[in-house]
Every structure is written in structure tokens, then in C-alpha cells.
Fold Threonylcarbamoyl-AMP synthase.
Amino acid sequence: METNYWKLTNNQLKDCEAIDEAATMLINGEVVAFPTETVYGLGANATDHDAVNKIFQAKGRPQDNPLIAHVSDRVQMEKLVGPWPGYVDNLIEAFTPGPLTFVLPSNGICATNVTAGLSTIGVRIPSHPVAQQLLKACQLPIAAPSANLSGKPSPTTANHVFADLNGRISGIVDGGPTGVGLESTVIDCTQEIPVILRPGGITQEQIEKVTGVVMTDPALANQSDKPKSPGMKYRHYSPEVPLWIIDGSLKRMQQEITGQKETGNRVGLIASNHIVDKLVADEAIALGENLSEIAANLYHALRTFKQSNVDIIICEAFPEKGIGQAVMNRLKKAASNYIYRD
Ligand code: TXA
Ligand code: MG
């Protein structure tokens, strides 16, 4: 299959031919990747079973993992779901459009393979101008998982999408690098108290300010519990080389690196700027100064090390506050939960 590639510039979105062409493909049941504020999504008409099936095929995604339906606004969201608890109004007001996915009772409008047969559906109103424009142009709910091959880190640039899916999908809309860099927060809103199923772009602290109380899926802390969000059980974000998280002093981190080098391994280091400056590894990627920068750069770093010839990646343990919760959730998965503490 030939993959169309449209490169957009920022001020070119109104009456944009590329967006119209991409929307027409979506309407015709094709699969197209597009940027959102979190990561690139791989979109298809959520009401068209065959179109949605193409997403699963292109990604190699397990059929039991439901997709998020993307819509342009609250009115479109209401068309896909049953009644919701009052706090959802406040969450919509506070965080949409933006990186928050609401799990609500499905009313059956979307195809059954979007929800993987569940009675609930994940719905999100993305804020990225390209995603917004595309959703408005096609006037459809768009099912979209992250636009990576299943098991790879989510794509934060169109190049990442191209590397994974060129030849497997109908088009890629290149709107530049995404902002947040990690996926949306998935929140179960089917009960009286909301439950975070996947930490992401909207933090627990932000949600608490709006709803007063929010719970987190126990499976996030305890590996032996079955997660309520089916996608959370997979070993995602695998960098294809072992990754160790070191929760300790600089001295401890350097000891690990040196110990690995002594066994003949080439060692890659992922850490914040000030730590990278102080340690000696074979290759190092500085993620930034603060947790937002670290989130934005993490997936690119994991992809870079996948392609380079390191045998092991050593990574700093970041504070699990704010967006740090999502950063550490993804890192622990990449590390199969191996964390070394002093
Ligand atoms: O930021 C994002 O959310 C990106 C962009 C493209 O919007 N999308 C994304 O989709 O990360 P995906 O498919 O990679 O992850 C969706 C997650 C999975 O863990 C899935 O199991 C969960 O949301 N999910 C979807 N529908 C659900 C439902 N009805 N109940 C529980 N979890 C659900
Ligand atoms: Mg994904």
C-alpha cells in the first residue's frame, strides 16, 4: 500500500487541502495517522467495523484492547455515550479539549471492535489544532490508538509513525512534534468516584482539584492485580534493550554503569540534564530540566536507543508527582518493573 504523506505548516489549517484529503480518506474507510497534543494517533471511522479492523491489522494490536473514540467537542461526545455522573461536567469544563480520556457507558453507536466488546467506551476531545480541524472536516467519531506498531513506544513525531507504519496505512499528516509526549490520562467515570486507569497528560493533582476525590486503579501499583484498562497489561514501550531504573545516588548510578561496562556491555544513559552532565556512559540522552520536558522527550529517547548499539539502558528514577506519575508508569513498563534502590 502506498502511504500518502502531507507536511503541514502551522498557519495553513483553514481550507487546507491536505486536511480535506485526509478527511476524505477517513470518510472512505481508510486509516490515517495524525498528530494530537499527546502522541500521534492512527485514525479510522469509529462507526465502520471494517475501517477499525484496519487499525488492528496495521498495528498488530491484540483484538481485546479497546480504542479511544476522538471527537471535536462535547456535543459529539454526548452522541456516543449514556448518562454520566455530575463530576464529568466539571472535568469536561476544566480539561477539554485536552489530554483526558473519559470511560463512560457506550450507547452502541461505535463499532463493536472499538470497545473490544466492553459495555463502556473511551472518548477524548483532543486539543491539537490539526486533530480538531480533521475531526471537524470529517464529522465522524475517529477511533485512534497511538500510531506505533504494537509494543513500540508511542510516536511523538511523524518520522516515528513513518518508521513503524509506512506502507501499512493510507496516510500520515505531519503536524510537527507533539506537545505532551505521553498519552492521555484514562479515567473511568462509570462510578460515583472517578478512577484513573492510566496516568497521563492531565495529572492526578489536577483532577483532584476538580472532583475533590479520585482513585487510581490498584493494578497501577500492584502488578498482580488485573488492570481495568486492558491495554495496561501489555509490556508496552519496549525499547528492545533491557532498561534498568536506578532509584539511588549519583554514585550508585555510576557504579551500575561502570559495572555493566566491565562486563563488556555498551551502556546507554537516560536522565535529566544535570545528571547526564555528571555521569560517564557510552551514550547518553539528556531528557531536559523538568518533568514536562522529560515527558516530551522520553519516547524519542527510547526509540533512539532501540536503534543504537547499546546493550543496556540505565535510567534515573523520576519523582512520581504531577506528570512524573505518567513518566514513571511508562518507564516501569519498559523496565518490566525492575527498579534498583539504594
Ligand atoms: O493520548 C492518547 O490517548 C492517544 C492519542 C492518539 O489520543 N491514544 C492512545 O490510545 O494512547 P491507545 O489505544 O494507545 O491507548 C488507549 C488506552 C488503552 O490502554 C486501552 O486499554 C484503554 O485506553 N481503553 C480504551 N477504551 C477503554 C475502556 N472502555 N475501558 C477501559 N480502558 C479503555
Ligand atoms: Mg498505545
In short: The chain has two domains: 4-216, 243-339.
